[in-house]
Amino acid sequence: MALPLRTSSYLHSFRASKETPTDTRTSPPPTKALKFPPRLGPLFWPWEKVKIGPLSVSPMGFGTWAWGNQLLWGYEEDMNNELQETFNLAVDNGINLFDTADSYGTGRLNGQSERLLGQFIREFPGDKRTRDSITIATKFAAYPWRLTPEQFVKACKSSLDRLQIEQIGIGQLHWSTANYAPLQELALWDGLVAMYEKGLVRAVGVSNYGPKQLVKIHDYLKSRGVPLCSAQVQYSLLSMGRDQMELKALCDSLGICLISYSPLGLGMLTGKYTISRLPRGPRGLLFCQILPGLEPLLSSLGEIAQRRGKTIPQVAINWCICKGTVPIPGVKSVKQAKENLCALGWRLSSDEIDELESAAMESPRRMIQNIFQTR
Ligand SMILES: NC(=O)c1ccc[n+]([C@@H]2O[C@H](COP(=O)([O-])OP(=O)(O)OC[C@H]3O[C@@H](n4cnc5c(N)ncnc54)[C@H](OP(=O)(O)O)[C@@H]3O)[C@@H](O)[C@H]2O)c1
Q: How far apart are CA 14 and CA 141, in angstroms?
């Protein structure tokens, strides 16, 4: 079974969901009854599922950074009902990969993304087989106080507690410390080995590793008998430089799945933001640096979307899929999830891909890279 739930508390929660009140161990207060979301129809064929080590995941996952983040994403707890419907809609339409991290959630909401996912999995109203196929990919922060493998194992156990499951699908290192604390790096790697050997994670992955560092960790893990299954990196039409291309080629040669994060450029590739219509907070500051040069790319996305009867975000996500990656767009509402789900079930032509990439090259600005990204 891909997602063993904690049995005793699961039964408790199941009983509680039939009666009232609901399990309040880690959940927010009882919420209104959720509608069972509609099925949008078959969005991909079974053979389009992607192998990540022993796991088989949908060609697109959803990212949950916003679920608990007030500062950047304007999260409020009264969004939880909608997020739960968003989750249900996604799972019922075949999405079985959800990306999160132990550092997601701001201030007192630290860990909220994992907690919400845990709650939503347990309360998923669909069939058990569908729920059991859900793969949670979480990331462990390389905090400076996590200096030993045991501390990573402890972090993994805390994530399991928040998620209320017995085993994590993909345990990923959130970033490498090679740039600023190279001596800590081996503890991170041994932490991954220990989690894997203890059966706390089914597969291991990394995030924000560049090609050089990826080869090093791949070889080290291999020497310890642990396969490296995934590499998560910022990858989109706004982040498609030489490093991303090199990393993708390397992943292909090593049998590692490349997971593309921020495939919508934090929202800039949805077409809804302009220099006079910016999101609140730090994103607005970033967007006003980048958006003025994005005209060629946004026009190209818009033209292709119109010709195809698709929308701009669907084209931007589809590009990531066509490049052989598994995108994990962030979603905050049922409307966004519905729209992004329809990025599946079709493919851009090679001419359209070329058109988009030339337009992206014409745009003078790119996304800034994660400060922890290594070479
Ligand atoms: N490994 C790492 O270091 C790392 C770093 C970043 C992200 N990630 C992962 O990757 C996931 C995705 O990246 P991201 O969330 O940074 O950015 P993203 O996927 O590029 O953008 C997501 C945002 O775009 C907007 N949006 C999404 N679909 C839309 C639609 N159909 N129409 C209009 N607006 C839409 C939403 O924000 P608004 O409605 O507020 O505009 C949403 O939160 C994250 O959730 C996280 O799991 C990992």
A: 32
